[in-house]
């Protein structure tokens, strides 16, 4: 009997100790942030009202996050006690429900010391708390007044969303965008800055009122699994994309064109998107309009046809348009990192395609980024930028709709003569006109593209610029189609 009494005392002391610790954490959180907000003399209050509001909003979110962590820890402790000492927890509840007279009659125990948890028990408790990587940065968007999404003539207002961080060279990008913008009312420029770099912010502000600057308010450190520490930059980029797109679409726009801060644009950049945006509404098989050609080096394009556009299964990015409905679909499952690879996966793409130009309407000038100058980044700088203005709004682009395009494109490609790379290189083809080079497997495709100098990689099994597995490019004076054989069964994820 004495031994049972001692064991019961030990369990109750431990239970009270855990609750005291949890209560201390909650009280500490309230006290610390209250005095920091009320009594901090050195707290920076920017002169700009918007920045002040954003900074207070950031601190408010931090307070909420700390409170949530304390609440989770308390709940975790209670769950731990219920799992391991159910009888003691239930008896404690019974004691709380007793009348004062009944409580006086119950045996009274005093807390005479603190019994530390064992390492195993500590791990069990902490395991019940959600890990940091599961905590999403669901920031409340600032209140925005109703925004006009269309002009009086019915044309849509298409904002240009520029994603910025710490490149003061963003000035090159903004100069281009402002120089070629035909109408500031129809194409408002919104620059969303992450990183909090003051020098970059000052450069952006120097362009007001020709653009609007918004700042991603969550500058807290981001949880990255230990094996992916070197990819932290990609996690921050993904978080920034999510916040910036939520902010922009919350204003009521139907379309957004995304531009990175290291891109130059062509003179007809705005005309290109204005002439193609309606295709996204007409054709449900389309999900983006891109200004980029991954194989857009000067030697691979037909410079005599700057108006030529293509369908592609590969998501190009680098200056692209999406609709509000697509963002509503993607935003609820937006990834924590590597968003561009994620968006190319079959679960997101769902066999939808993009429109891309023969000649790129964007070109990168950035030399430093999260990818640290990989081969692909170096390749990008050789992409040819269109210099001729094409009146896309006056062209009939119905040939890009799925039924029209497939009937013409596939029949044309598979009736062309088959040649080898060697015959092409040595100019042994007797007739002028387009030809087809056939590939059977991944190894053969990579070997041919390397010899030609084309991009040879795959993303989710899809080659860059491919449509139905067919990669179209220009070689000297003729169009060439690098195509799979006729019994092609679709993209193979194992090719990536």
UniProtKB/TrEMBL annotation:
It comes from the Eukaryota. Pathway: Protein modification; protein glycosylation. One of its GO terms (biological process) is protein N-linked glycosylation. Residues 98-107 have a biased composition (Polar residues). Its main location: cytoplasm. The keyword Disulfide bond applies. The cofactor is mostly bound to the substrate. Signal peptide: none annotated. Pfam families: GNT-I (PF03071). Its cofactor is Mn(2+). CDD domains: GT13_GLCNAC-TI. It catalyses: N(4)-(alpha-D-Man-(1->3)-[alpha-D-Man-(1->3)-[alpha-D-Man-(1->6)]-alpha-D-Man-(1->6)]-beta-D-Man-(1->4)-beta-D-GlcNAc-(1->4)-beta-D-GlcNAc)-L-asparaginyl-[protein] (N-glucan mannose isomer 5A1,2) + UDP-N-acetyl-alpha-D-glucosamine = N(4)-{beta-D-GlcNAc-(1->2)-alpha-D-Man-(1->3)-[alpha-D-Man-(1->3)-[alpha-D-Man-(1->6)]-alpha-D-Man-(1->6)]-beta-D-Man-(1->4)-beta-D-GlcNAc-(1->4)-beta-D-GlcNAc}-L-asparaginyl-[protein] + UDP + H(+). Keywords: Cytoplasm, Disulfide bond, Glycosyltransferase, Golgi apparatus, Manganese, Membrane, Metal-binding, Signal-anchor, Transferase, Transmembrane, Transmembrane helix. SUPFAM superfamilies: Nucleotide-diphospho-sugar transferases. It is found in: Cytoplasm, Perinuclear region; Golgi apparatus membrane. Its EC number is 2.4.1.101. It is an enzyme of class 2 (transferase). One of its GO terms (molecular function) is manganese ion binding. This is Alpha-1,3-mannosyl-glycoprotein 2-beta-N-acetylglucosaminyltransferase. It comes from Glossina morsitans morsitans (Savannah tsetse fly).
